[in-house]
């Protein structure tokens, strides 16, 4: 499931965008304050939708922070500020698109589908592979292997950190979606996944786990 962050201090507009995205099966977190985004932007989002003029930290400052963290995550700026210098500055700081308010909701929907909805395939040992949009794991005979919701979320998280160690804290934030998870719960999840994946697909690291990808 694709995960999108919205920063918009107009509650009505934020709710309209959130409802539209949730109908398309996106996981959506909506914030109305830049400080809240600063506290949460590293929680595994696939796309950001940022208003500029919001309380505390403005959208363009957050855009630069996001780009310092990751240059590849799509960022769409939505703003009623249509001064040429503002639009130019947004692109200089690294936004992928700029949508001027007011806009039709289908305009934003089309931009999100274009920028954010991409099939990502991760390949594991023995020709197993996982499609992050379909959220389906296939074995080497192209047969689907049943996964629970949390098992799918873990593999989606692994696709964002290919062959890198993923901390227990990040697993808790992303897979348990804000709920608390004990170390034992995470270990149980990994144990179940190891039974479904090829041997040695998941390594235990000092601070968490690493999924070994072949491509």
Automatic annotation (TrEMBL):
One annotated GO molecular function is: transcription cis-regulatory region binding
Query: Any keyword Transcription?
Result: yes
Instruction: Spell out the InterPro entries in the cross-references.
Output: CheY-like_superfamily, OmpR/PhoB-type_DNA-bd, Sig_transdc_resp-reg_C-effctor, Sig_transdc_resp-reg_receiver, WalR-like, WH-like_DNA-bd_sf
Q: Does the keyword DNA-binding apply?
A: yes
Quote the cellular component terms of the Gene Ontology held in the record: cytosol; protein-DNA complex
Q: Which UniProt keywords apply?
A: DNA-binding, Phosphoprotein, Transcription, Transcription regulation, Two-component regulatory system
Identify residues that carry 4-aspartylphosphate.
Answer: 51
Q: Which GO terms describe its biological process?
A: regulation of DNA-templated transcription
Response regulatory domain ranges (all copies)? 3-116
List the Pfam families hit by this protein, alphabetically: Response_reg, Trans_reg_C
Which positions does the record tag as DNA-binding?
120-215
- The OmpR/PhoB-type domain extends over 120-215
**What protein name is recorded for this chain?**
Two-component system response regulator
Species of origin reads Malaciobacter marinus
């Amino acid at each position: 499931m694709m995960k999108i962050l919205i920063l918009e201090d107009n509650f009505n507009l934020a709710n309209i965008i959130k409802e539209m995205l949730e109908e398309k099966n996106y996981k959506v977190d909506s914030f109305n304050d830049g400080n809240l985004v600063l506290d949460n932007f590293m929680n595994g989002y696939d796309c950001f939708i940022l208003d500029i003029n919001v309380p505390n930290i403005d959208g363009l400052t957050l855009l630069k922070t996001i780009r310092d963290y990751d240059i590849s995550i799509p960022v769409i700026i939505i703003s009623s500020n249509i001064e040429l210098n503002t639009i130019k500055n947004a692109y200089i700081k690294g936004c992928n698109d700029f949508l001027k308010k007011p806009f039709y909701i289908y305009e934003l929907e089309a931009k999100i589908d274009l920028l954010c909805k991409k099939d990502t395939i991760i390949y594991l040992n023995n020709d197993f592979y996982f499609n992050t949009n379909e959220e389906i794991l296939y074995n080497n005979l192209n047969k689907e292997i049943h996964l629970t919701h949390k098992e799918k979320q873990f593999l989606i998280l692994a696709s964002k950190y290919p062959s890198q160690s993923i901390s227990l804290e990040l697993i808790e934030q992303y897979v348990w979606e804000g709920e608390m998870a004990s170390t034992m719960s995470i270990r149980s999840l990994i144990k179940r996944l190891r039974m479904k994946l090829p041997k040695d697909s998941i390594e235990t690291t000092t601070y968490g786990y690493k999924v070994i990808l072949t491509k």
